[in-house]
Amino acid sequence: MHQLRPEAASIMRQGARQILAMDEALIAAIDEATISASQLVDSDMVAMIYKANRMNILHWAREISVAPQRPVSANLSVEMVQLARFQARLGIDEATERAYRSGQQAAWLKWMQIVFSLSNDPALLQEVLEYSARSINAFVEATLAGLAERVAEERRALSQGAQAERRQLVQDFINGKPMHSASLGRKLGYGLDQPHWAAILWTDTPHQGPDAQEVWVQVQDAFSADRKLLVIAADRATIWLWGPAPPAAEEILNACPSHYRLAIGASAPGPEGFLSSHRSARLTQSILASAPAEKRLASYHDVRLISLITSDRGAVDSFLRSTLGPLESAAPKLRASLLTYLKTGCSLVETARLLDLHRNTLMRHLARAQDLLPIALNEATRIEVSVALELLYWREGEQPVRPA
Question: What is the pLDDT of residues 25-45, one digit of tens each?
Fold first, then answer.
């Protein structure tokens, strides 16, 4: 930082001493300007910002009064660390940072008044104000960075401790350890005597960026569902979720890196439903994991039929060949047309609407697809063909339109 002339250093020192001697009314005025500009309304947060502002102003003034030429160190005193611990529980958001910035501006206005009362030399005033601006800005940046680091440490510590205990409780319950559901619910902060939708958010490549727990923190910042969720970090690549309503799947995936996937279980009530929904989510995960990378979402409803017949890969291959014949390797649009047609109960009107195709085009697709089938499409074979096309859907990258 630029070295001050002795005259400028003297003004810095005198001004800092005036700040240290400020009466309560002046400090309160800075407090009010800070909170008004930041628009904070939470009473705990307001009290915290008041205290932080005062400590920051006095910290900067004390160091300047002793050594105006030296950069002011970040204010990471015991009190500020305690505030960081408090912030780890309330959260630091944009409003909080605005409050710190507003405090900086309010204090700067008061500082300018003090400096102008100490000299009328334009060159000297310019030097003092330019140096002050750099000093205050560097101090605030260093303090915010230090606080953010402390808050992150607190959050990690809180999360790891709580998550480890919650993860073990859930693991024990899943593994069949006898537990009283009401007691377990209280410990988890999540009621078990309600309907449950379980889901699994995971990645097969956790080394490609932040781990699953960090990703979930980002998801929470981006998606504002008001439902009560139980979130368990199963490992660094996997998050288990439970909630009383279906998860906002698209919102979750949109907030995640593209290599994350989401498997959703079937809804089921009560403590046993907590377990069965999770089991169906894991089954869904196993099928989705074998699908192409661009398939990122599946529910148990999507895969429940094929889950019954996919354990033997060789048998599945043989079933596809014998049921679909040349259609297995035909143009995806033909398979999409036929699968959608079968899922709509063989409705030409509904299939054309879903696929946004002209009726004549759809009829050509269906005719060509049926020509390629090695078996005639009739009442007896429709289920087999539909299952075969559904199996292929989960193997290939195509996306047949699904009827609502």
Answer: 777 777 776 666 555 555 666
Taken as a whole, the chain contains a residue count of: 404
The DSSP bridge partners found for residue 223 are none
Q: Please name which of 122, 105, 106, 109 lies closest in space to residue 8, comparing C-alpha atoms.
A: 122
- Rounded CA-CA distance 23/20 in Å is 9
Is the Cα torsion angle 338, 342, 344, 346 positive or negative in sign? Answer: positive
- In angstroms, the CA 349 to CA 357 distance is 10
88: three-class secondary structure by DSSP: helix
Kind of pairing between the strands at 260-264 and 238-243 = unpaired
What are the tokens at 320? 């596809």
264 and 382 share one domain: no
Distance of CA 183 to the CA centre of its chain: 29
- Judge if 221 and 325 occupy the same domain: no
Q: H/E element holding 233?
A: strand 230-235
Rounded Cα distance, 340 and 347, in Å:
9
Within the chain, which residues score under 50 in pLDDT? 92, 224-226, 397-404
Domain that holds residue 319: 307-395
One-letter amino acid at 115 equals V
- At 239, is the secondary structure helix, strand, or coil? strand
Sign of the four-CA dihedral 253, 254, 255, 259: positive
Quick check: 201 and 261 in contact, CB under 8 A?
yes
Q: CA 303, CA 262: separation in Å to the nearest integer? A: 13
Is pTM beyond 0.85? Reply is: no
Could you tell me if residue 336 is inside a domain? Answer: yes
The answer on 279 and 196 residing in a single domain is: yes
- Residue at token pair 């002793």: 66
Nearest-angstrom CA–CA distance, 236 and 249: 20
Q: Is residue 167 part of a domain?
A: no
Distance CA 314, CA 199 (A): 29
- Which residue is it, tokens 């005025």? 29
Q: Which helix (H) or strand (E) holds 138?
A: helix 122-174
pLDDT at 214: 79
Please provide the DSSP assignment of 88-111 as one string: HHH---HHHHHHHHHHHHHHHHHH
